[in-house]
Structure formats: C-alpha cells, structure tokens
Amino acid sequence: MTDEKVTRSLLRYFTFPDGSTGALITLDNGQDYNRPNTFSAGGMQSLSDALDEVERSEATALLITGKPYSFSAGADLGPGGIMSSGKTPRQIAEMGHETYRRLGEMKIPTFALINGMAFGGGFELALNCKYRTISSAAGAVALPEVHLGLIPGWGGAYLLPRLIGPRNAVKVIVENPLSNNKMLKPQEAAELGIADVLLPSATFVADSIMWAHKVVTGAITVQRTDHTADVASWDAAIEQARTFVAAKTRNAFPAPLRAVELLEAARTNDRDAGFEAEDDALVDLLGTPQLRSSIYAFNLITRRSKKPVGVPEGVDPLPVARVGVVGGGLMASQIALLFASRLRSAVAMVEVDQARADAAADRVRGLLETDVKRGRKTPAAAAALGSLITTSASLDSLANCDLVIEAVFEEMDVKKDVFAKLDGIVSEQCLLVTNTSSLSVNEMSAHLRHPERVVGIHFFNPVAVMPLVEIIPTERTNDVTLATAFAVAGKLKKTAVKVVDSPGFVVNRILLRELAVLFAMVDDGLSLENVVKSTEKMGLPMDALQLLDLVGPAVGLHVNETMHHAYPSRFKLSNFLTQIVSNKITKLLDEQGHVKPEVRALLPKESSLTVEDARLALENALVEEISIMLDEKIVDDVSQIDLCMLVGAGWPFAIGGGSPYLDYSGASTRVRGKTFGAA
To answer: What's the rounded Cα separation, in Å, for the pair 80 and 555?
Structure first.
C-alpha cells in the first residue's frame, strides 16, 4: 500500500461542429493548484482504462488536457510515489511505454492540450500524442530528468530529437537540465516545434477543439520534418552534447552520458528499439546511488523551500516597507535590486561619499540595462524598478527604514562602525542585518543598544540567481527579529537555512575547507592539474582553481585567514596562495582556462602526490568538517548542510549536496565509522 495521490483520467465526450464525437480526457489528482498532476502506478492504470473506453467508443479524435494550471509534472518521485509503488525498475520503465505509446498508435488522431506545466513524464505524454497545442499561459515545459539522475524514459529520448531535430533536443534534454534546470516558456515550446500551435489561454480548450477538428477534417495539415536524414547535423549535435556534459559534470555521473547515447541512437532506432533502449537505461539508472541522492536532494529542496526549519512558532513578523542598504558595490547593488523587485519596497542605498554614491547609482542602472538587453525585463519595468532605489552619502537617509542591511567590506571593525552609527539613527523596531560571509554576528552586535534586533542574512553571488540565504541569529536575537528575517527571505523567494553564528557558517566553511586542504597539498608539491582532477569524481560545478578565481585570491586568502584564526589545525594557510596575493595576481587561470605562467612560476617543486591522494584527503576533510559542525550543532541535522550546499554552492543533485556522496563513496565509514544516513 502507498499513499499515492492518484491522478485520474476523467473522460467525457463532446460533439464537433460537424456532428462527430470527440473524446476529452482531463487529468486531475483531486488536489488544488499547489499539487500538480503526477503519475504513479494508480494514475497510469486510470489512463490506460480511459484509453480502453475511448477505443470502444465512436470517437473520431482523442484530446487530453490537465486540471487548471497543471497538465502533468510527470512521475511522482516523492514519498508514496512511483519509487515506493512496489514495481521493479523494469516494470516502472515499461509501464509508461506500454500506456503512452497507445496514444501514438491509436486508429484515431490524438491531441495533447498543454494547458499548464508539463514536466518529465507529463511532457512525454504529450510527445506520444500525434499533435500538441499549448496555452500562452501554460507555465513551464521541460524534461528535467538528467538533472535528477534519470533520462526521459517514457518516449522522450527517442521522440523529441525526431520531432524537433537533434540540436534542439540536446538543448531540452541535456543542456537545460544541467544549466540550473532551465525551463521552456510556451512561446519557446511552440517555436521549437514541440507544440504545433500556441493558443490564447482564455479560450484555450475551445480553440484547441476547433483546431483539432480542422486537423481531423483535413482543413489543416501539420508538416513534419525527417531530421534523421541529415546524418552530419545529427553527429555534430551529439558531439556538442558530449562536450557540454564533460564541461558541466566532468563525466562524473551516468545519467547525462546515457541520455546522449540515447539521443545518438534515436536516429537509426525504430520505435520499438528506441523505447527498449530507454527501458534498459532506466533499469540501470534506477538502482544507482546517484539517483537515490538526486531524489533525496529534490525532495529536500521541495520540502524546505516551502517550510524552513527554525521559524519561531506563533510569532508575527514585522512589516517591511522601506529598506536600507549600506554599501554600493556589486553585492550591495544586487541586494538592493532584489529587495526592490521582490518586495516592491523603496530602497535607500548609502555610500561613504557622494562620488561612490553616484557610482552605486550607475551600477544599479547598469544591472537593469543588462536585464533589458537580455530580455529579462522590459524598459518600462526596468525604469519602474530603478525609480524605487535612491542613493546618498548620508546614513541619516535610513532613519525611517524598517530593515537596513550592511554589505560593506568584510572587516569586523568596519562593520562594527556601521552598526554603531545606525544604532543611533534608525528606530528601535528597525532590523539591523549583516550580509557577512564569515564574521561573528555576535561580536558585531555586542556593543549595540538593541542587539536583539540584529540578525545575519547571508546572500550568495549572484544574488538574483543563488536560491540560498543563511540566516544567522545572535545569542540575543529575539523571536520577532528571527521571524521577520524568515518572512523576508520567503518574500525574496529564497530558501532559508538557520545557522548558528560560527566562522564561515555552512557554505563558506565547507568550501574553504576544500581550498585549505588542496592548497596545503600544493605547498607539499601537488600539481595544479591534480588539484583540478581531485574533484572530478564529485562532479562539482567548479574545481578549486575556478572557485578561487570566482571569489578572487585576495578575498580567498582573507577569509582563509579568518578561518585559520578560528580553526588553525584544520584551515592551514597556504604559502602558495599568500605568494599569489603578494604578487598581486588576481586570477590563476587565463581566458582559455589555462594556468597563467606567472602562477606556475610560484609553484613549489612537484612531489609524488597523486590525484587519488588529493581526492582521499578532500573526502576525509569534508567528512571531518561536517561531523564537527554536527557536533557543534551549527544546524539541526546533516540534511540542512546538504541543503546549503545544493542551493548555495550549486553542488549536484547526484551527490545529494555532499553527505550522500560521502556515504556511497565509503568516505563516511572510513573516517567516522558510520554513514551520515540522510539519503
């Protein structure tokens, strides 16, 4: 028995204008719009039963749509879903193919009316139909399986490249999922040829019925291109896919590689062979630790983005109508824009002098202009957003703010000075927030008249993209302040994790431990090539050199010094890194990703240290650091650390954010004698 929320296929008949009968199936799981249609065993059986009835009827066409706002989000991967249905991997794989392929092989034409979100197996249901309409308000369309450690296994890997061509299919099946799980808008789906026609939302079903009728009667003929004939283009698309996967994942995980293989084979396979290949791939992938880790990560993010841990119960947050930002650099400008865009609140930015205040205003305008150029905002929307943000050189302009966040240089004395001045300017109810990445919020607020209204909200760069904020209460932060911080994070559409005030908090503590271990080994003669290769098995989005270049060697060294001061035995200072900064080298890598000659000149003599030495040392260090953080009760449990690394550092779903990988690689047992056991 499972607690599957069955998506039922509700069948009714209607009459076309010429008097013939049409069949309409509406997918509906009986839940509100917050719970999209999904498929597990019960839902698939309901669809199969409805198709049986249609085949026995006099219907001249079959149309399938979804409940409001949801066509189908595909297979139910949550608790009580398809993974706990009692089906074997082979049965799960074959179940979708056996039911869906009927849609493409029925004697009558079949139409998918994509009225709302269509993900994964829901998207594949539409692909198996002969024709597709899509609503202008359908939301997102995507095949996210590769992001989750799977492949489009209910027809997608075979049908899509044949429908829209191999290059476009590579984009949808491989590139988009591995690029922060990018989705397609309805217009894009129509332009790619996924949908045959884009129709207005207000009259979508009625218009779809009329369009279907024209197809049935021959008034409209939908042309299809035989993409399999262009062998050269197909081969080029597959080679591009392989290059992309290697760059994004270091070929560390099986799912993207398997997806590329299926796309390559789709050109010469017939439907039977194509579907069987998908079955085989699903069977292989459904048993992998990477998939278990991915499902754990998916459910963790889904659950915690809606209900974060540590929100004070029964406490009403304070309203936040006006926001102040101290600082005018890139980070501060991004934070200001985020508050203005999400809260639609007035934002006052303050710099140390008028010249820097003017530069901050220019920086905000530049960010908005970039959004306009990239099509993210209309000129009017950008102008409206910009009008909410003002800049000045006076902290007095923040007197009537409900929340003030400092984003100045990462120096304790500088931040203390800012807070001391603000303490005498803002109201007693105004929240004082720090964006510090590693400094003690307790120390920062200890001298204030009202330390209870101080809290850390640590954003990650780029602010608009990275979903995580670490919320750091002090020993004296009151519940109202904490509740307000969580409420603000929610309105900013961020995933919030409560973290005990400690050096580096969670994300930076883990990343800096990685850098400290690997660059200490460089001091001992580990080659930079082996530094890069040491994280390939984990498939991290950036190796240690790229990570250091992202933050900048000077910042990296500065924060490393902070961590070394707190934990000298574990966060060793690297002589090599110190020399990099002393020689004013701002990047280790050139534009082609090669180590710069001036960097190589500072390297010590290479020793016999290998990639395996570095990998084991890194894994051991991560297990140790996570274990210590749990002992120190920095977060409630290890899942919170995984969540931080997933949404704050972009660590892959396939490693579950960290601890699942350390479990299945054997590192946890090797170091601590037991697994973390989160996934």
So the answer is: 46
Residue among 513, 442, 331, 507 nearest 497 (CA) = 507
- Return contacts of 218-225, CB within 8 angstroms, 24+ apart: 222/131, 222/196, 224/163, 225/165
CA atoms of 495 and 493, how far apart (whole Å): 7
Placement of tokens 């010094």 in the chain: 561
- CA–CA gap between residue 292 and residue 601 (Å, rounded): 44
> Hey, what are 379's tokens?
């000129």
Q: Give pLDDT, residue 4.
A: 62
Residues 6+ apart with CB under 8 A from 541: 248, 649, 650, 651, 652
* DSSP codes joined into one string, 585-604: ---SB-TTSPBPHHHHTTPP
SS3 447: coil
Distance between CA atoms of 421 and 407, rounded to whole angstroms?
15
Give the per-residue pLDDT at 1. Answer: 39
**Number of helical (H) and strand (E) elements in the chain, helices listed first:** 27, 17
Task: Report the alpha-carbon distance of residue 66 to residue 27 in Å, rounded.
Answer: 4
**pLDDT at 3 (0 to 100):** 59
| Nearest partner of 500 among 555, 455, 464, judged by Cα | 455
Distance between CA atoms of residues 134 and 396, nearest Å: 53
**Omega of the bond leading into 17 within 30 degrees of 0 (cis):** no
| Domains with residue ranges and CATH for the chain | 8-287 (3.90.226.10), 322-498 (3.40.50.720), 507-633 (1.10.1040.50)
Tokens of 498: 């409560």
Query: Is the distance from CB of 117 to CB of 36 less than 8 angstroms?
Result: yes
The beta strands (E) that lie in 120-270 are given as 131-135, 141-142, 197-199
Contacts of 20 (CB under 8 A, 6+ apart): 60, 216
Instruction: Return d(Cα 12, Cα 669) in angstroms, integer.
Output: 57
Task: Tell me the torsion sign for CA atoms 82, 88, 92, 95.
Answer: negative
Phi, psi of 282 (to 5 degrees): -60, -45
Query: Beta-strand (E) ranges in 478-573?
Result: 495-498
For the chain, which residues score pLDDT lower than 70? 1-4, 80
pLDDT of amino acid 291 = 92
Instruction: In whole angstroms, give the CA distance from residue 123 to residue 64.
Output: 12
Residue 180, pLDDT score: 86
Q: Are 283 and 87 in contact (CB under 8 A)?
A: no
Task: Kindly give, in sequence order, each residue whose CB lies less than 8 Å from that of residue 384, ignoring residues fewer than 6 positions away.
Answer: none
Distance CA 480, CA 312 (A): 8
Tokens of 110: 């079949």
Residue 504 gets the label, from left (phi > 0), alpha (psi -120 to 50) or beta, of left
CA pair distance 679, 666, nearest whole angstrom: 14
Nearest alpha carbon to residue 419 among 390, 438, 443: 443
Structure tokens at 641: 């650390």
Within 8 A by CB and 6+ apart from 168, the residues are: 161, 192, 193
Q: Is 98 helix (H, G, I), strand (E, B) or coil?
A: helix
Rounded CA separation 261/146 (Å): 13
Two structure tokens written together for 291: 């998939």
User: What is the sign, positive or negative, of the torsion defined by CA atoms of 567, 583, 531, 535?
Assistant: positive
* Alpha helix ranges (H) inside 524-589: 528-533, 544-551, 553-566, 575-582
Q: What are the respective helix, strand and coil percentages of the chain, to the nearest 5?
A: 50, 15, 35
In this structure, what token pair is assigned to residue 567? 């934990």
428 contacts 450 by C-beta, under 8 angstroms: yes
2 phi/psi in degrees, rounded to 5:
-130, 170
- 133-139-145-151 Cα dihedral, nearest 10 degrees: 10
